[in-house]
Amino acid sequence: MPTSNLFGAESNTFSNIFTYLGLPLSRELAAELDAVVMGVPYDLATTGRSGTRFGPTGIRQASSQLRWEAKRFPWRFALSERFKVQDYGDLDFEEGNSDEMLALVQAHASRILAAGKKLVTLGGDHFISLPLLRAVHETHGQVALLHFDAHTDTEASDAKYNHGAMFYHADKEGLYDPAASVQVGIRTEYDYDTHPMTVLDASWVNNHSTEQVTERIKSVIGERPVYLSFDIDCLDPAFAPGTGTPVAGGLTSDRALQIIRSLGDLNIVGMDLMEVSPAYDHADVTSLAAATLVLEMLYLLASQKKV
Is the pLDDT of residue 175 over 80? Predict the structure, then answer.
């Protein structure tokens, strides 16, 4: 029998696994639209295991497991009651043409943001965040960066395409303010003496309460517009094995969801979720974690909308 899914439509949970949550697929930016989910199937800047070009598809397919619950626990409203979202589909660029990818991501993201819509992007490797930040800068100016990751991605590299150096380049371009930015879950080497951002490393996060973590985040960011970028390897490999550069000692999926859920006071202007590589996944564990985090992001945005 057909059931009422998350967005109130009469459809079977598995009748459409080709868009996120079975959302309408469209690039029309209607006035009543609140947010857009966009995929970027790119992984040519990867330094570890490849395969994140299949991330957007993996996340969308896993999201079918989330459609039966009309109200996402523990939120007390249905997303469809407050927030209109559509799937923008994947951006299509010539295979191997990283420059075309850069231009397309920036152009489409700029179009969406300039229309006053919120944008949640599915990667793809984390290098995609660079053109996204360029688009955000066009609309919102310099932002704070809230970055969830096992790595700082601030390698001082002149390589044109490198998913470990895009925040180094974004800093040089003035796209975000390091003094107002926070990195959460870091557990790999960085320049401890000169690193410009506040780091809440994984050990610190795992040994403090969610309230203490979010209080620290908010104290650094304040009222600045903020871009939230989530690399799935912020999670421990037990919760997200399907990624290119897994690092033991990370966050649980529950802790990450709790932190995202508690960020309602922040002025969030855009989000992304990167680095899901389904070929290394087991039982869709990583894709499901990613799909759930994206849904939490959408609920967070919806909770900020004045009704």
Answer: yes
